Hints:
Largest sheet: 6 strands, antiparallel
Number of helices: 11
Strand order of the largest sheet: 1-2-5-3-4-6
Distance between the termini: 9 Å
Protein name: Helix-turn-helix domain-containing protein
Structural class: alpha+beta
Number of domains: 2
Pfam family, one: HTH_18
InterPro entries: AraC_XylS_family_regulators, DUF6597, HTH_AraC
Strand content: 15-25%
Number of strands: 6
Radius of gyration: 18 Å
Helix content: 40-55%
Shape: globular
Keywords: DNA-binding, Transcription, Transcription regulation
Amino acid sequence: xxWYSPSxxxxxxxxxxxxxxxxxxxxxxxxxxxGCVDVLWIDNGRIVVCGPETAAWSFRLPRGTEAVGVRFRPxxxxxxxxxxxxxxxxxxxxxxxxxxxxxxxxxxxxxxxxAPAARAGILEEHVRRWLADAxxxxxxxxxxASMLARDPATTVAGLAAATGxxxxxxxxxxxxxxxxxxxxxxxxLRLQRFLGIARHPAAPVDLARLAAAAGYTDQPYxxxxxxxxAGSSPRELIGR
Length: 240
């Protein structure tokens, strides 16, 4: 995505953030769910919290729109921003709905007055303040995110056994932290694993081998998830 530039976050923020990013946006773009929550500033002054998605979604902004954002790791944003993540699933909300009007106003003013090169650091500075007042992530959901990152084929029963919870208890806590249950998170992370493998320069070109490497039982299973989550075939998704 030539309009979008990811950047590493400060080391002390890495346990909570996947990445920072800047963008110069033009036209329509389509994004695939990744289990994360983004907080982004747009140069019209808006600051938006993008909740976790269950399916790909498209957005359009005027030519030359500038934006800067941070991406929270799966399960972390709710504790930091003070909401039940299920309440923002498939939604984009103003930051003030989570942290209040003062937090939105202060950050918007600072970012609007800053040089483009300084904006990422300013946003990270504010995230650091939010983290100072935030509780730690729930141990069980942190373990789920870690296990699924290592092996997206881990079953819900396996996750429940590893965390010492019943499947019902696990579903309730995952829904509050991730916005949906562990089975949905597993599907989304497995599709992202497929994309990461497929876009590597040394990746096999055979879809069946790619599907197996990503943790799918077979290629048709991969195709069904691509259609359901990304709205396209595996080949179309890789190309996009």
